[in-house]
Design goal:
Radius of gyration of chain A: 20 Å
Number of domains of chain A: 2
Shape of chain B: globular
Number of domains of chain B: 1
Shape of chain A: globular
CATH architecture of the largest domain in chain A: 3-Layer(aba) Sandwich
Order of helices and strands of chain B: EHEHEHEHEH
Number of strands of chain A: 11
Radius of gyration of chain B: 13 Å
Number of strands of chain B: 5
Number of helices of chain A: 11
CATH class of chain B: Alpha Beta
Oligomer: heterodimer
Strand content of chain B: 15-25%
Largest interface: A-B, 14 and 18 residues
Strand content of chain A: 15-25%
Order of helices and strands of chain A: HHHHHEHEHEHEEHEEHEEEHE
Number of helices of chain B: 5
Helix content of chain A: 25-40%
Distance between the termini of chain A: 54 Å
CATH topology of the largest domain in chain A: Rossmann fold
Structural class of chain B: alpha/beta
Largest sheet of chain A: 8 strands, mixed
CATH superfamily of chain B: Response regulator
Distance between the termini of chain B: 11 Å
CATH superfamily of the largest domain in chain A: Vaccinia Virus protein VP39
Strand order of the largest sheet of chain B: 2-1-3-4-5
């Protein structure tokens, strides 16, 4: 790959997805994009770049974005966020929403679905406390390919063994040969939608809990700041934001404040956004799950 | 340092498991079948047991039943590690007192995840 081709791909990915690649990521581009090139009948990255420059080359462009932004995910990844979910966020919400009995959750980088399904399993495990509650989980990702996998809810033997307790595997999955499919019951708890975090959030509605983990790391600093500010505007003032283990808002944004002793957990910073609360948007009819 | 008994009739598997578990700071002992494993446990009860199912002399499930009857035999965390990967086998193992279950083939990440799951690391 020539420096010019590398620069072209970097700019292309930044414009299309916000993905920011540092100077030394040629190997990553080659390992992910050579298969895409071959699938399209192209022999090299050079040929791929030439093709991308053609007008109206949208299918290939999308495949390139998907290949570069697809990330590994596992059930109960990092554990702590899900302990926070069941021990901090949900108890708080059960008190705060006792009247409405309604909670909306957004997984902003749902990938192949492990994170939203983990939340769905956590909810099922505490079902007795949720009688009469309506809980919506929206899972979004920039990639159609991973969303198709998420919707299918079928995982390899390797995938179901990373982080998923064996009891929950037995309880919520059915086996087909060496793959395992999550139950229809849990699949129906989640809505899936292709969504680019660079686009407007206005169509998403308002959320009480947002999981936005391990995706901000791919953006440059102004984009991170912008996304955090826009997330804060579509959250309830008493809502919760969860970032990845290696991520923080500190130094990036005053839209959120970290919660003491709860690593990775943030709340909207009311002092910073006092004037910016939008009216609560209407809910999508028929979405979510009533317990 | 925590101790882990690796029970498998394949010396290759024992070696792979030993390497992974030593990196996770376990002290390893080995047994080739359930009978040997039971004798080791009667001498010293380990903190963890990584347990194959199909072995000569005494299989993993029989070993587990015997272990749980021993004095202090409730204590070790038992993680099955076997090619038996169907729901029926998994359910039998859990009913017999296994704490976790690994379906072979396994890798470092799976062992680490499962040992974390049962609170060993």
């Amino acid at each position: 790959m020539t420096p010019a081709e590398y620069d072209y791909l970097r700019q292309f990915l930044k414009a299309r997805s916000g993905l920011v690649l540092s100077n030394e990521k040629q190997y990553l581009i080659e390992s992910r994009l050579l298969p895409v090139a071959r699938k399209a009948g192209l022999q090299s990255i050079a040929a791929l770049v030439a093709k991308l420059k053609e007008p109206r080359e949208t299918i290939l462009a999308e495949a390139v974005v998907e290949a570069m932004t697809t990330n590994e995910s596992f059930f109960f990844r990092d554990k702590t966020p899900f302990e926070h979910f069941t021990q901090v966020m949900l108890p708080e919400m059960l008190k705060a929403r006792a009247q409405q009995k309604r909670i909306r959750i957004w997984c902003a980088a749902a990938s192949t679905g492990q994170e939203p399904y983990t939340l769905a399993m956590c909810l099922k495990e505490m079902e007795s406390k949720l009688a009469g509650w309506r809980i919506e989980i929206l899972g979004t990702d920039i990639s159609n390919e991973v969303l198709d996998r998420a919707k299918a809810g079928t995982y390899t033997q390797f995938e179901v063994q990373r982080g998923l307790p064996i009891q929950l595997l037995l309880k919520y999955f059915t086996q087909h040969g060496e793959s395992w499919t999550i139950s229809q019951n849990l699949r129906s708890m989640i809505q899936w939608r292709k969504f680019n975090l660079l686009d407007s959030f206005q169509t998403l509605g308002q959320f009480d809990i947002v999981f936005c983990r391990n995706v901000l790391i791919y953006f440059d600093q102004p984009t991170k700041t912008d996304i955090l500010a826009r997330i804060s505007k579509i959250m309830t003032p008493d809502g919760f934001l969860v970032l990845g283990a290696a991520e923080t808002v500190v130094g990036l944004s005053d839209s959120f404040k970290p919660m003491t002793d709860r690593r990775g957990l943030y709340m909207p910073n009311l002092a910073a956004s006092a004037s910016a609360q939008p009216p609560r948007l209407s809910m999508v009819a028929g979405a979510g799950r009533t317990f | 340092m925590k101790t882990c008994l690796v029970v498998d009739d394949s010396s290759v598997i024992r070696k792979v498991a030993r390497r992974i578990l030593e990196d996770l700071s376990f002290t390893i002992s080995e047994a080739e079948d359930g009978q040997q494993a039971l004798e080791k446990c009667q001498e010293t009860m380990p903190d963890a047991i990584l347990l194959d199912w199909n072995m000569p002399v005494m299989d993993g499930l029989e070993f587990l039943a015997q272990l749980r009857k021993l004095d202090g035999g409730e204590a070790p965390k038992v993680v099955f590690c076997t090619t038996e990967n169907d729901v029926g086998h998994i359910a039998r193992a859990i009913r017999a007192g296994a704490n976790e279950y690994i379906m072979k083939p396994f890798d470092r990440e799976i062992v680490e995840a499962k040992f974390q799951e049962v609170g060993l690391i």
